[in-house]
């Protein structure tokens, strides 16, 4: 029952995001990226997890470029099994499973991330993440032996009045929309 409600909520949030005009999206992307910069620079994080954005997600590519110029290590997810591992952001990017772009695999030992920027589809009344339904971020953070600062991003807040999350779903320190 709860999974059905979660699935329906996820679909309604995705539908809402698809209707944002490109002008409105550009404006929101820029504002959200500026807020993310403030959080990152105030935190003095040196190792940051970001993501390669899909069309429905906040475009963080300008942020990635800015952080790299400032000598901040930028890591992105590289799908591996039922979760992902961190790889350093570098070009070229290749389109992979689910239409997600990734850099090539890296076998270097990862540094500890201080801050993670995580895209969301929505949140429930517990402020826990509702994603695309694959559980990759939840598994990734569950397997870490430490907790970085987590920031959720979304173009337009989609919040349920119900508890849709499970106890393993991640919760953020900040939500920026």
Mind explaining what this structure looks like?
The structure is a single chain. With 177 residues, this protein is α/β, with parallel strands linked by helices. The protein has a single domain (2-176), classed as Rossmann fold (3-Layer(aba) Sandwich). The chain is built from 4 helices and 10 strands, in the order ααβαβββββββαββ. The protein has helices at residues 2-18, 22-43, 61-69, 136-143, and strands at residues 47-49, 73-80, 83-88, 94-95, 101-102, 115-119, 122-123, 129-130, 149-153, 174-176. Strands 3-2-1-6-9-10 form a 6-stranded mixed β-sheet. The protein has a two-stranded antiparallel sheet with strand order 4-5. The longest helix is centred in the first third of the chain and has 22 residues, at 22-43. The protein is globular, with a radius of gyration of 16 Å. The model has no long low-confidence stretch (mean pLDDT 86).
The major pleated sheet works out as: 6 strands, mixed
Estimated radius of gyration: 16 Å
Can you give the mean pLDDT?
86
CATH-defined architecture: 3-Layer(aba) Sandwich
- Percent range for helical residues? 25-40%
Strand portion, in percent? 15-25%
């Amino acid at each position: 029952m709860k999974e059905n409600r979660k699935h329906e909520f996820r679909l309604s949030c995705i539908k809402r995001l698809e209707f944002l005009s490109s002008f409105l999206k550009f404006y929101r992307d820029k504002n959200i990226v500026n807020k993310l910069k403030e959080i990152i620079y105030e935190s003095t994080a040196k190792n940051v997890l970001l993501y390669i954005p899909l069309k429905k997600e906040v475009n963080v590519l300008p942020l990635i470029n800015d952080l790299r110029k400032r000598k901040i290590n930028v890591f992105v997810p590289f799908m591996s099994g039922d979760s992902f591992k961190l790889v350093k952001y570098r070009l070229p990017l290749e389109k992979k499973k689910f239409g997600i772009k990734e850099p090539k695999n890296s076998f270097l030992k990862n540094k500890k991330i201080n801050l993670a920027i995580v895209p969301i589809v929505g949140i429930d009344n517990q402020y826990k993440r509702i994603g695309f339904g694959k559980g990759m971020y939840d598994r990734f953070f569950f397997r870490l032996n430490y907790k970085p600062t987590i920031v959720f991003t979304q173009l337009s807040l989609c919040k349920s009045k119900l508890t849709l999350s499970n106890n393993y779903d991640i919760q953020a320190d900040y939500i920026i929309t």
